[in-house]
Amino acid sequence: MITSKELRDKWIKFYEERGHVNIGAVSLIGDGSTGVMFNVAGMQPLMPYLLGKKHPAGTRLCNVQGCVRTVDIDSVGDATHFTFFEMMGNWSLGDYFKKEKTKWSFELLTEVFGFDKDKICSTVFEGNDAAPRDTETAELLKGLGIKEENIFFMDKSNNWWELEGTVGTPCGPDNEWFYPRHDTPCSEHCDINCKCGRYVEIGNDVYMQYKKLEGGKYAELENKNVDTGFGLDRLLLFLNGLDDGYKTDLFSGAVEYLEKVSGKSYDNDGNARKAMRIIADHTRTSVMLIGDRNGITPSNTGAGYILRRLLRRAIRYCRNLEIDSEHLTGVAKVFIEQVYDTAYPLLVEKEEYILEEFRKEIKKFEATLAGGMKEFEKLVTGIERKNEFMSKSDPSYVPQKEMAGKQAFRLYDTFGFPLELTVELAKERGLSVDEKGFEEAFKAHQELSRAQAAAAKGGLAERNEITARYHTATHIMLAGLRRMFGEKTEQKGSNITEERMRFDFNCDHKMTQEELKQLEDFVNGVIARGIDVVRTEEPYDKAVATGAYGVFNPAAPDEIVSIYTIAGVDRQICGGPHAKNTAELGKFKIVKEESSSSGVRRIKAVLQ
Q1: What does the alpha-carbon distance between residue 48 and residue 52 come to, in Å, rounded to a whole number?
Q2: 543: helix, coil or strand?
Q3: Distance (Å, rounded) from C-alpha 461 to C-alpha 322?
Q4: Which residues of 490-522 are buried (b: 16+ CB within 10 A; e: fewer)?
Q5: CA torsion, points 494, 495, 498, 501, in degrees to nearest 10?
Q6: How confident is the model at residue 540 (pLDDT cuts 50, 70, 90)?
Q7: Could you tell me if 91 and 62 are in contact, meaning their C-beta atoms sit under 8 angstroms apart?
Q8: Is pLDDT of 452 > 50?
Q9: Average pLDDT over the chain, rounded to whole?
Q10: CA distances from 192 to 40, 91, 175, 561 (A)
Q11: Helix/strand/coil for 198
Q12: How would DSSP label each residue in 422-468?
């Protein structure tokens, strides 16, 4: 049985022996230059060099590149879908071309990996009005010993690579390699076009020999490139004679761990098998994203939101497996210490950091799940009971099969359930969700929040000199919190009366007495300095560029906003009102610190 570590080594060694330089892998996290959140293909980081830029390592390159794709996250749970995978690649940048590449791919498959040349199938471009039939590649394949009946000419949608919507970029035909999963055809016409799934693509060689022109035409390139991509996970499957990706050594350790802690069998329990696959896959991808050189952490926006969704889906499936979600850290350790310890040594260095991020997210989401699952069950049970009662009393009654959008929004707004989680849970109970109704409820909520914010002017129940002082105190306190816990600290809500202030902010722990004392001292120090509170008006984008921040963003970058500045302390976009000078506030005292909701703390304070 070949291991994943051996496969990586064999790939790199094969191409290094043929003059290629191993350029290693880049970060999984997109840098913004390609317009995608994660690197989704092995060639993606090399796009500038395929477009003509000189690579510092030369013209022959190879590597094994990690990739993340989450567009079909809901498909994870079967035998072949993964959110993280590795692409084994090699490139010629204006160096060798079809003759060398077909020969090397054939040698790799037959001589290194032992594929039967009589079973190998290949597809090539059939040609169209813009570019000719790729008979050159077909003849080269036949010359290597691939049977003519195993070479298939396919149209542009199958065997042509180009960047859609561009002009002047390289493009060209590709040669895809296929191999049968087994030797039993479903019929006499069972070939790579058959829908039975017997044949699977294991890799491809793209020949960038043309340049895109205006009007859908192409011209020959003087310097032609080769871009090769073979999926490590898929090739590992074939080399070990398996049809289940979770049986390879990439996942076997994680599955064994889950079997041990759950007492359930992967092979003999279909429900447990699906849960183990989802937990293993999502844990692996989460480890990779947190442990990446440009590592991210769970959040409610961008790539951090995708990570949070993966982790929380894994947490939920721990319940399906009837195990404590803390076991996710055990699964993570298998990937860090056993599977990727040599291929991705940074994971080992960052192990405790990765595990701590897992623990924090588990703690947050378990609290959310506890209340939300009860509410979800109440909603579904209500629908089921209504259907049962109405069906008995009215034979013409059509059972309700959809959860209302407002109900789904309540799960989101009150219990922190993302819509996709509600959709997934509902599907398991035979229900759909009115997603359009959810969006309408969401928009209505936003509009109401904006109206309330405008009316309350920052949470003030009344507008007078006393509440204005309290309002100024919230600004100073938030400035102190941001100094203590970082600029990601944000206001999550506030309520001010003449008697006290209440302020909510994001924080992952209960504040200690030392931290509360530090915050009190900071606020009182600013008050004692007697700093003027100055109001100015600027376009929003200019205000932000000069360090202003705020709870609510305006509709447009050039919208004029009010900024209240306490020199050297705080600069916030705010509707006011405020004290004229911090000395007006008196003495600030925190009377209580408590939890408001998952990941949100609440401070109650008074001015004396």
Answers
A1: 7
A2: helix
A3: 47
A4: ebbebbbeeeebbbbbbbeeebeeebeeebbeb
A5: -40
A6: confident
A7: yes
A8: no
A9: 88
A10: 25, 26, 14, 62
A11: coil
A12: HHHHHHHTT-EE-HHHHHHHHHHHHHHHHHHHHHHTTTBSS-SHHHH
d(CA 288, CA 487): 25
Closest CA to 584 of 502, 529, 503: 529
C-alpha span between 307 and 297 (Å, rounded): 7
CA–CA gap between residue 141 and residue 135 (Å, rounded): 10
Q: How distant, in Å, are the alpha carbons of 91, 162, 182 from that of 98?
A: 12, 18, 29
Query: In what side-by-side order are the strands of the sheet with 560-566?
Result: 533-539, 560-566, 570-573
Strands 432-433 and 402-403: parallel
Amino acid of residue 337: E
Report how far residue 228's alpha carbon sits from residue 506's, in angstroms, rounded to the nearest whole number: 46
Query: Which helix (H) or strand (E) covers residue 299, if one does?
Result: none
* Secondary structure of 250-270 as H, E, C letters: CCHHHHHHHHHHHCCCCCCCH
CB atoms within 10 A of CB 287: 28
pLDDT band at 492; cut points 50, 70, 90: confident
* 454 against 479, higher pLDDT: 479
CA dist., res. 483 & res. 505, Å (int):
13
Report helix, strand or coil for 569.
Answer: coil
Average pLDDT for residues 574-588, to the nearest whole number? 88
DSSP 3-state helix, strand, coil percentages of the chain (rounded to 5)?
45, 20, 35
Distance CA 18, CA 21 (A): 9
pLDDT exceeds cutoff 80 at 35: no
User: What 3-state class would DSSP assign to 507?
Assistant: coil
Q: Structure pTM?
A: 0.66
> What own/partner pairs with CB < 8 Å and gap ≥ 24 does 13-20 have?
14/104, 14/108, 14/112, 15/60, 15/62, 15/90, 15/104, 16/62, 18/60, 18/104, 19/60, 20/60, 20/61, 20/62, 20/90
Whole-Å CA distances, 142 to 84, 95, 293: 35, 23, 44
Can you tell me the distance from the alpha carbon of 356 to that of 374, in angstroms, rounded to the nearest whole number?
28
Query: Which pair of tokens denotes residue 4?
Result: 């994943």
Among the listed residues 241, 111, 98, the one whose alpha carbon sits nearest the alpha carbon of residue 173:
98
pLDDT tens across 223-234, in order?
899 999 999 998
Of the candidates 429, 401, 430, 434, the one whose C-alpha atom is nearest the C-alpha of residue 419 is 434
Closest CA to 40 of 82, 62, 68: 68
Using 50, 70 and 90 to split pLDDT, how confident is the model at 455? very low
Distance CA 173, CA 137 (A): 10
How long, in residues, is the chain?
608
Closest C-alpha among 181, 174, 119, 123 to residue 145: 119
β-sheet bridge partners, residue 211: 170, 219
Is residue 439 within 8 Å of residue 567, measured between CB atoms? no
DSSP 45: G
Structure tokens, 62: 């190879």
Identify which of 276, 309, 292 has the alpha carbon closest to the alpha carbon of residue 73: 309
Query: How far apart (Å, rounded) are the C-alpha atoms in residues 413 and 416?
Result: 6
Structure tokens at 279: 């937990």
